[in-house]
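Look over this one:
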Amino acid sequence: MQTSKFFTAETIFDNVTAITGLAGEKCFLIQGREKALLIDALTGVGSLKAFVRELTDLPVQLVNTHGHVDHCGANFEYGQCWIHPADIALMYEHGDPEMRWGFASSMGAKSARPEDVIPPCPVKTFPVYDGDIFDLGGVKLEAIGVPGHTFGTIVLLDRDRRIVYSGDACNANTLLFLPGSTTIEEYKESLLHFKAFQPAFDGMFGGHGPGPVPNTLIDEALLLCDEIMAGTDDQAQGESVGRPCLYAREKDQFFRRKDGGIANIAYSKDMIFRKS
């Protein structure tokens, strides 16, 4: 394990390092023979680019699973990234230093200061779409589109490792009530597309919390979508990122489902069905 004031790095495979930021957010550095791929870019508190330089001498490509504040911070250090076009505007909106500092400090980043936030700048963006391949030399990552949490959400599949790097696409606290989220109905369609790849992987490393989680998380989330649309879910009152919402399953303060399941969806009643 390698640590700095801002980051902690942990080897999860011989060529894969999980990096955790001060807010508990995670990104993943995958190394091939020719180059490395950095999946997500944390909140941008402290220099992730400098930390990554200590981990690899390879040229690094940066790809975002989506454009939220805790996944695109180091975009403004690298000056370029691969991101789905639907999330480019979101990336710039969430590049605001006050927003990024507010997120980090609200999540307990006590050792940092506002001046540690990487300032925004223009970022050269390259589009990434469902089916695109990142070939690192002996290691390939395949993009799968899973719109839901944001319209531009993707995940990255490593068929050889049988692992998906899933960002916030499907987890124990999938937020589907934010500006830029899809409806539950549209998210179910995305999950069905994601499920078509289920035989190719066993687990998922997400952008928060421990991992990997089993691929059956997709099936749990699909069931929750059906229940939300039918009005038979728990409709538990909750709050996330300062906004009121409903949770499909009752949970405790650590986002653990009280019925023992893993997947959960936070939503609002006006974002269940596709808008006409």
About this structure: Residues 35 and 58 are 5 Å apart (CA to CA). The mean pLDDT is 96. Residues 217-230 form the longest helix (14 residues).
